[in-house]
Amino acid sequence: MRFEHSATFNPIDQLKVIGHPTSRIEGPLKTTGTAPYAYERHDVVANQAYGYVVGAAIGKGRIAAIDLDAAKAAPGVLTIVTADSAGKLGKGARNAAPLLGGPEIAHYHQAVAVVVAGTFEQARAAAQLVRIDYVKGDGKFDLAAERDSVSIPDPTIGGPADTAVGDFASAFVAAPVQLDATYTTPDQGHAMMEPHASIAAWDGDKLTIWTSNQMIAWGAEDMAKTLGIPKENVRLVSPHIGGGFGGKLFLRADVLLAALGARAAGRPVKVALQRPLMFNNTTHRPATIQRIRIGAERDGRITAIGHESWSGNVSEGEPDMAVSQTRLLYAGANRMTATRLATLDLPEGNAMRAPGEASGMMALEIAIDELVDKLGIDPVALRIANDTQVDPEHPKRRFSQRQLVQCLNEGAARFGWSKRNAKPGQVRDGRWLVGMGVAAAFRNNLVTKSAARVRLDQQGRVTVETDMTDIGTGSYTIIAQTAAEMMGVPLEKVGVRLGDSDFPVSCGSGGQWGGNNSTAGVYAACTKLRETIAQKLGFNSEEAVFADGAVRSGNRSVPLAHAAGAGDLVAEDAIEYGDLAKTYQQSTFGAHFVEVGVDADTAEIRVRRMLAVCAAGRILNPKAARSQVIGAMTMGVGAALMEDLVVDKRHGLFVNHDLAGYEVPVHADIPHQDMIFLDETDPISSPMKAKGVAELGICGVAAAVANAVHNATGVRVREYPITLDKLLEWLDVD
Amino acid sequence: MRSFSYERATSPGAAAAAAATTANAKFIAGGTNLLDLMKLEIETPAHLIDVNDLALDRIDETADGGLRIGALVRNTDLAADRRVRRDYGVLSRALLAGASGQLRNKATTAGNLLQRTRCPYFYDTNLPCNKRKPGSGCAAIGGFSRQHAVVGVSDACIATHPSDMAVAMRALDAVVETVRPDGTTRNIPIAELHRLPSDSPEIETTLQPGELITAVTLPKPIGGTQVYRKVRDRASYAFALVSVAAIVQRDGSGRVALGGVAHKPWRVEAAEAELPGGAKAVTARLFADAKQTRDNAYKLPLAERTLAAVLREGGA
Description:
The structure holds 2 protein chains of 2 kinds.
Chain A: E1 2-3, H1 27-31, E2 49-55, E3 61-67, H2 69-73, E4 77-82, E5 104-105, E6 111-117, H3 120-127, E7 131-136, E8 163-165, H4 168-174, E9 177-185, E10 197-203, E11 206-211, H5 216-227, E12 234-237, H6 253-265, E13 269-272, H7 275-281, E14 288-296, E15 302-313, E16 334-343, H8 357-375, H9 379-385, E17 398-399, H10 404-415, E18 427-429, E19 432-444, E20 450-456, E21 462-465, H11 475-487, E22 494-497, H12 514-537, E23 545-547, E24 550-553, E25 556-559, H13 560-564, E26 569-577, H14 580-583, E27 584-585, E28 587-599, E29 605-615, H15 622-641, E30 647-648, E31 653-654, E32 673-677, H16 701-713, H17 724-727
Parallel strand pairs in A: 1-26, 2-13, 11-12, 15-16, 17-27, 21-22, 29-32
Antiparallel strand pairs in A: 2-6, 3-5, 3-7, 4-6, 8-16, 9-14, 10-11, 10-13, 14-15, 18-19, 19-28, 20-21, 20-26, 23-24, 24-25, 28-29, 30-31
Chain B: E1 5-8, H1 12-21, E2 25-28, H2 34-39, E3 47-50, E4 59-61, E5 67-70, H3 75-80, H4 82-87, H5 89-96, H6 101-106, H7 109-114, H8 120-123, H9 165-171, E6 175-179, E7 185-189, E8 212-218, E9 225-231, E10 242-248, E11 254-259, H10 279-286, H11 299-313
Parallel strand pairs in B: 1-3, 2-3
Antiparallel strand pairs in B: 4-5, 5-8, 6-7, 6-8, 9-10, 10-11
InterPro entries (chain A): Ald_Oxase/Xan_DH_a/b (IPR000674), Ald_Oxase/Xan_DH_a/b_sf (IPR036856), Ald_Oxase/xanthine_DH-like (IPR016208), AldOxase/xan_DH_MoCoBD1 (IPR008274), AldOxase/xan_DH_MoCoBD2 (IPR046867), AldOxase/xan_DH_Mopterin-bd_sf (IPR037165), PaoC-like (IPR049648)
Organism (chain A): Bradyrhizobium uaiense
Protein name (chain A): Xanthine dehydrogenase family protein molybdopterin-binding subunit
């Protein structure tokens, strides 16, 4: 199905099932511990052996010699695979650094061997006996030091490196009010609960992998490419994923090493990345240095806005597109953005929840708050004054929907923003200095092809199959809701099978594109199935009504189950998009309001209240969507206050590489949190009229926290995370 | 994890004797720290002596009105004990500020005292660490040292002791009871239990090889307002950047011990004479020989400010 024109009324608009806060249909599996996660799939294949990964002990250099004798002689060891014995390996299109290193070492904890043994304990013990002599090279590990030796990248996503409209330089200099500030964001880890994990089994030259992966088709394709085997010979299965946040978008070392280990051992092998390897072996959100310059009139209207960002990555890696939102969020006739990329020898940087906007909004929305200080205008009012209903770089492109102003106003009213004291450091509650902060939320909506297969059986049951994944987001549920709405059956009559490369290729889960696109693909397949059914029953498909488990036209009604007849009826289709994404700018909007307390003595920062108001198209399932947003808000608090992969610039690694050292928020950090969605349907986005929402929730949160800290204390911190040591010297002693 | 042999000890004396006669043996009780370290092969004992069967899980009143806490009393139980809550509030508060409910259910009194540092370089076997591998160097010096010690450090090690419980016990003048391999017992004032790193940071206590902690005794209650204040980046489940255990009496006298600043709970009795002069005077004495890094210099003003807040809370 081609989606070329603004959606009109369709069966989804009935909202009998869609739009309801349905609990997750796979929830009971998860709460009873019976959802099959990758590492626990003891049932799928017999005789599983265990692989344990050895990570490189240096940040840059090469292996001079490997001695495997002791490890091979250890109890239970079946085989050990290194680059020497792996055979010729290619590299996936979406991998920058090789997943199996040696002799060259690209980064710390790059996998250099997998030890396979009969038990996990044997593999782990033997892995410690692998003796490797390294020759350390001179690595580049310091982004700030490389700031002047950068290149202009050619990003594959996020638009060009540089954009310019009007004459930024002149307009900035001429502006009566100017802001010129530099912000830094640190490297961050996904820190999902389930590590990367895979079981691989060979049957002749056919490979099956049970894994934890957000993008099944990418994974299968890159696995085939890396091994140099036909794509048809690789099957990836990933029905449940214990968190990904972008860390599982790609083929990673667990998959490759399980496959290589299984081939060498001649039996199935399972591999999970041990937690201390997660942060340096896999990908992370790259650190940024961001310079923002804004020129404004005294009434607050922006006349010039410039955003430059520096990030680093391994050779062939991509930049963090932290300037993305600045191209679209605020009006202003004269504009520039610039993205620069340094080559670093740290682990590979890549997508993490809202790549680009998450880091960019951390800086931009502090900058707006700093402009507020210079202008003496309310932060909500200033943002509203600079709203735009068109893409500011291409004014002929309208936003399909843009309710930023409504989000800000609604949030301000609900949060009690009018009670905020604009003068910092004035509000006291016992030992706490109290402040409020606001930030806009912005994240683009991405549309991409997504296919599904729908089957109707003789019992009137509908089964959906697609390689879409559920990374904890609720994909199972919204896909079931879509099929139920389309076929006119109750939710219990719908089965959903996901995450298998044997199924039609979906959009996958990432970039908050999963919800809208995968359900639109199911819409397309259901539309086709409706036509098939109508035809078979002799109905005019335009007139046939699918409701209450029956097909009706005029005064004739046939139970859906009868349509299947002797065999199942099957339809497969995909949603494919025309030019609407070019002619319109599709984005999602919101406003974050945060109240913090800062301990007057210790400068400890604790969030007291949070509210997000979001406008993101039709909300297919308000319960699932709310969970996504409050989870993202929590992650935003982590970004604001604690998350920091600390680089040891001598040894070239992220030092705090476990969950004791890399802190993320705990329950006690999130006392009162709420979010609401504004009513919105976006007929430009898809027949579902929905958009992404899972990443909108993180964009802007950290800046709202930072702005609240400033309001509480008068201290402006421009280097994330905002920790007490950065406030202490500026706070008066009681 | 390396293979190891295992036995369940039947008496404290037998446990200590076995530990002295078996090469590379370790005691295990809750295992909340040791097992993690064994999985990473930071600890590689050849033999484990499980002491959980020893009847050391009681809290008894002593003849002089104090409490004798068995070595195996779990942190959860100790924190909840009515007598501890009533008479030794600083200890109960310190325990509840540490770890998580699940860990406190397993962790024992003696194990808590003997837990090892959380320095990230100690945990990464690819990197130098004099505590893990004597003579290899200290990666924390010149590296990431925001969590590290600011006083009592050496050129070999700047690690901290991570316990909260031990800081409160130091303020309470607890005494550690042990049994030695030859069956004799002794009492070690807690001030003398932990060592500073000097040039041998791998040796963390004054316990002799095989010596087993059997109990911790608290002297009779000294009253006062008892406060434990733990400063950290997140609200729970994090090690202290700085912590303060204080017992403040109505006359303004008192005791102060600090966590997160040294290789051991940090108390300087002479500094307590300065209490009437306020936090600044006290911390000036506590940190007279401080040696901070760029990353952890903030701990000095933080300690002073935290102490000031605690003294205010204590009514001093």
